[in-house]
Amino acid sequence: MTETNEHTAVVIIGAGVSGLALGNFLLRNGIACTILEKHSREYVEGRQRAGTIDSFGVRMFREWGLAEVLEGDPVAEAEGGFWIDGEEMPIEFGEDENDESVFCPQQVLVRNLTDAFLRDGGDLRFEAADVSLEDFDGERAVVRYRDPSGSMGVLDCDFVAGCDGDRGVSRASIPAEALTRHSHEYGYNWLSVLAEVPASPSGMAIHSRGLAGLIPRGAHASRLYLQCPPDDTPSDWPDERVWSELEARFGTPVATGPIVDKRIVPLRSVVHSPMRHGALFLLGDAAHIVPPMSAKGIHLALHDAEVFARAVIGWSADGDPSPLDDYSDTCLRHVWNYQAFAAWITETMHNAGDPSYAGEFRKRIARAELERQFTSPTANRLFGELTAGVN
Ligand SMILES: Cc1cc2nc3c(=O)[nH]c(=O)nc-3n(C[C@H](O)[C@H](O)[C@H](O)COP(=O)(O)OP(=O)(O)OC[C@H]3O[C@@H](n4cnc5c(N)ncnc54)[C@H](O)[C@@H]3O)c2cc1C
């Protein structure tokens, strides 16, 4: 078996949102990097998840000269409403002149970031199998992988950026005793369904049967969510049950159509600390998970990518390691702040409907919280962003 040895400054594991954003930031600043992605380009560019990039992400791409990555395949803006116990709430979402968030399906962002990286001469290797990390607890690291022809590649580098999600190889390579996992399970999950029918109505429904969401995914498709018990599987939800349950929770007829994907999304919050071990830095979902109700996974992935990119660029320019030394603390402060928001919005939205998890007292508290959002112009903007952002 042939083996090729190469050197680069940063090996990035994973061509998702954090890995591709980081690769572009480094490349534009003359830092050599190689991205290793386990799947094919076609697979990665077809993976549908989030739909909204928040104001932070929009400003960040603009500042790095990458505004173009938010363009293409525009999705119709969601005019989402709110239903409580089957009745639509008479609320109007306030305008926010500082809100620059845009609709950009995650697969479009990934495709555009890939195009920009390759166009600028970036080194992105798809179908890199059996990625493994060695000698990374010191100052440098070695990354091995197998390319599609079966040859082994060996990359010697200054830093490894673990951007390979919650189930990747990066975090799993860190000795268990060097990492602490903080986690919270909410006690319920979401059935997430992709259907080939426009969302009608669109928005979120709070109901004693559980939370439901109907979110547009362009002119001809929608993403549907149904709160469900943690041990449910997609086979518990035949198509007819999905539609009748949506109607029951919204209290109004919903447009039905072919269902093309059905999966269970766990509702949990997870933080791994610290986000660095030697030459290995964890970014995005590899380090933390926020529940999908908050729609902040992309935000955190992009934030990590920017903090790490600035630290490497600074170190390369003047040899100052302190931003790299501060990376974990800087990101974790931000992550916990967003975990606080994510836990609050998740519990408020679910407790306000179904009392079987947290009890009647918490339900009444959650209802009071919701009413406060609906009557405060600033706060109800949040719900406008949420119905648009959850995807
Ligand atoms: C159904 C669903 C809906 C969501 N909705 C939203 C939303 O509305 N808003 C929001 O902000 N967030 C949402 N999220 C979360 C968001 O998608 C993630 O937080 C975000 O993708 C994290 O980016 P990342 O770069 O850390 O990981 P990813 O984007 O997952 O990228 C990781 C990459 O690493 C690759 N990889 C994995 N293992 C290896 C390996 N061993 N070797 C090489 N490569 C590897 C993967 O193939 C992948 O390309 C949603 C997630 C799901 C699942």
Derived from helix and strand composition plus strand pairing, the structural class reads alpha/beta
Number of helices: 9
Strand share of the residues?
25-35%
Percent helix: 25-40%
CATH architecture of the largest domain: 3-Layer(bba) Sandwich
What are the bound molecules?
A: flavin-adenine dinucleotide
Overall outline: globular
User: From N to C, what is the helix and strand string?
Assistant: EHEHEHEEEHEEEEEEEEHEEEEHHHH
Assigned CATH superfamily of the largest domain: FAD/NAD(P)-binding domain
The radius of gyration computed from the alpha-carbon positions, rounded to a whole number of angstroms, is 22 Å
Which CATH top level class of the largest domain fits? Alpha Beta
Uncertain spans: 387-391
Average pLDDT = 91
Under CATH, the topology of the largest domain is which?
A: FAD/NAD(P)-binding domain
Domains, number: 2
Number of strands: 18
**Sheet with the most strands?**
8 strands, mixed
